[in-house]
Amino acid sequence: MLSSFRRFIHSKFGAVFALLFLGVIAAAFILGDISSGNFGSSASGGATVAKAGGSRLTLSAFQERVQRVFENARRANPELQITEFLGQGAAREIYDQLVAAMTLKEYAQDQGVHISKRLVDAQIAQIPAFQDAAGNFSQDNFRQLLQRERITEQALRDDISREVLERQMLAPAGLGVKLSDSLVLPYASLLLESRQGTIAAVPAVAFNDIKDPSEAQLNDFYKSNAARFTIPEQRRIRYAVIDGQRFAQAAQPTDQEIAAAYNQDKANYAAKESRSFEQLILPTEAGAKAIAAQVKAGKSLSAAAQDTGLAVSTLPDQSRQALASTSSAAVADAGFSAKQGDLIGPIRAPLGWLLLRVTAVQTVPARPLAAVKQDIAATLREQKEKRLLTEFTDKIEDEIADGGSFEEVVKDNGLKLETTPFLLATGKQVEDQAYQAAADVQPLLAPLFQMSQDDDAQLIPITPDKRYALAAPAEIRAAAPPPLAKVKELVVLQYKLAKGNEKAKALAEQIRDKVAKGMKLAEAVSAAGVRLPAPQVVGGRRADMLRDGQRPPAEVMILFSMAANSVKTLPIGQDRGYFVVQLNGIKRGDAGDQPELVNQVRSQLGDVVGQEYAQQFVRAVEKELDVERSPTAVADVQRALASTNSGAQ
User: Fold this and answer.
1) Where's the PpiC domain (predicted)?
2) How does pLDDT run across 329-364, given as a tens digit for each residue?
3) CA of 633: how far to CAs of 49, 156, 434, 615, in Å?
4) Is the distance from CB of 248 to CB of 494 less than 8 angstroms?
5) Around Cβ 131, how many Cβ atoms within 10 Å?
6) Coil, helix or strand at residue 45
């Protein structure tokens, strides 16, 4: 019932642009994937926005760090806008983290604490993006990624040193936190608390008597709400595909090459024999001979072994070499000289006396060159295509590195230049919702939306070792609201929705006041003079609502922060109207008889208290070092980034 209630509220009239919620920025900037763009800072000049001892944080370094974190967030959420990012307090969070890192570095130097190069090397080697397919550190990957992200090795090392230093200095502050039952029990009991309430909605769309705005009103509304209509950054992409198939003819192996490959691996094509065995090991020769006699008399080896309380083991598909390695050459020779069904032994073995019975013989005949020629040719062709493709792409990269323009390199190497229309980071087109980006374009979107207009073209794998694209941004259109004429109809709807939202707020407050004075919520809704959805009864236990990381709607969760028998209004959001929420009843929880829950909450609260201790330690160090902070730093960076990232915003 509640779902249908919310469907009415979240109708298409209110869903102009969905806002993306950005959570709290993670405390650590590094020791993740280098492709996150969270490493290093190449800027060191500019005004000082914080100072601790001999260290200072510059405005340019602070701004670059916020920009990098924003770009990282956009990799996961391509439609994220800078206004949304900053609106969640990201710049303040990052500023506090940078100041804390600088403060701890100065304090550590005063205390004689240093991070060794070997420790930093070990941390770098653990970063997944620097590892090859086998999980080992790759110097080539390391250099290429640093170059792509425009980060110096020293900047990376400095950041890792600071992060390791923070861990070493702050982690002990939270160790050994022990919270008593009297402190934990009230919090655990809150999870078992149940609440019930009634929710009424006053949707903005319920007010259908709102007149269309005048041109002046519409222009003013559009200017003041430009962020709502902002189209994310768009880019035209130019690219040229390089496919391994262009070398198909040159990669054809000759008969001589096929014969040479066959002779080189001739052992793999020779006749082979493998055998399966039953094996029994006994401690004495006499015992082994007794079992062997029973088998020769007609009893199976497994049955004879079972009579003495033993069990046979099986050795399936053994080659002569494999059997020799697990037993001895003598055992292998005997095993491969016998016929299927024969019993071998007793034979002296490292662990006792061995009985071995041949249960199966598998033979693979030799394969002549004619039988495997096609397979060898396919393998050689694939290897040669890969080598020729690698040589060709290396040549392309060298030409770009030597200053060749995109057009020159494409023309000189006989490639076909293609250019996309303006695309969003998702590959969609703003003006053609049916547009589908080509399959070759999809892998290019993420890296190309991180490049600047002046960056050299990059070789980007479409299918590793088979297909690549030389690509670069052709044109960048900054995020900005479109001309009003193009979205006038939508803006008129949003204007009327905003006016309806104002009326919804006033009516919701009137209903709230009536209910607070004793009128039933359903009666107050019926007497509103506007057709509204019927109120809905909701509720439940807090633990059930938060199970498995679920997050109930705000209009339900607010019940757990209300006083008994109270009533509140709550905006639906995005000018869609208002809720009137009444708390009907509270059933207190008691976790006294649930020790597992209490211990779980104790552990979670212990982490929180440990983090609080660490924060208090940092604040104490800042006070001791007399750290200076600029009161305008965050606002200055927010203003600069909003301008550079949002075009006309």
Assistant:
1) 232-360
2) 888 999 999 999 999 889 888 778 999 999 999 988
3) 6, 24, 44, 21
4) no
5) 15
6) coil
Q: How many CB atoms lie within 10 A of CB 627?
A: 21
The structure tokens listed for 14 are: 């209110």
> What is the per-residue pLDDT across 44-80, written as a single tens digit (0 to 9) for each?
446 899 999 888 999 988 998 898 888 888 777 777 7
Q: Which CATH architecture has domain 272-364?
A: Roll (3.10)
What lies within 8 Å, CB to CB, of 388 at 6+ separation is 244, 247, 250, 251
What pLDDT does residue 582 have? 95
What is the reported pLDDT for 42? 38
Q: For residue 188, give both structure tokens.
A: 């655990």
Q: What is the DSSP string of 46-88?
A: S-EEEEETTEEEEHHHHHHHHHHHHHHHHHH-TT--HHHHHHT
Residue with tokens 């939306």: 449
Contacts of 235 (CB under 8 A, 6+ apart): 422, 423, 425, 448, 449, 473, 474, 475, 476, 477
Q: What is the pLDDT of residue 17?
A: 24
Highest mean pLDDT among 136-140, 193-197, 428-432, 611-615 belongs to 193-197
Domain ranges of the chain: 31-179+602-645, 193-231+485-588, 234-252+388-477, 272-364
Which one-letter amino acid corresponds to residue 561?
Answer: S
Half-sphere exposure of 126 (CA within 13 A, CB side): 10
The residue to which tokens 């298409």 are assigned: 12
